[in-house]
Automatic annotation (TrEMBL):
Pfam family, one: PhoLip_ATPase_C
Sequence intervals crossing the membrane: 12-33, 45-67, 74-92
Protein source organism: Cirrhinus mrigala (Mrigala)
Protein's name according to its UniProt entry: P-type ATPase C-terminal domain-containing protein
Keyword set, alphabetical order: Membrane, Transmembrane, Transmembrane helix
Length: 102
């Protein structure tokens, strides 16, 4: 079990560089696609921020789902609870007037 850590297979400069490049690429995509879509609309920056925030949460949740190898009832409960908590928090906080959040 510990031989992977002793051989530094999961944490070495190459893995770190690939992870940083992937994170940078993902952040560029998750920002500029909504920015390009909302650029010529009458919406404000708060609407853009909420849109980007929602896509980041959904994308992160999908990545967690795809990387999970063994599912238990606790994994399912954590994923469902995190999504429900996010949308409930977003529902009860102030949203922009022109952003229709269901």
């Amino acid at each position: 079990v510990y031989s992977i850590g002793q051989k530094k297979q999961l944490f070495n400069p190459l893995v770190l560089a690939i992870t940083l490049l992937y994170s940078f690429y993902t952040s560029i995509i998750l920002f500029f696609i909504p920015m390009g879509i909302l650029q010529y609309s009458a919406l404000d920056y708060q609407t853009l921020a909420i849109t980007v925030e929602t896509t980041v949460v959904l994308t992160t949740t999908v990545e967690v789902i795809l990387h999970t190898k063994f599912w238990t009832k606790f994994n399912v409960a954590a994923v469902v609870f995190s999504l429900v908590a996010f949308f409930l928090a977003r529902l009860f906080t102030g949203s922009p007037k022109d952003y229709f959040f269901l």
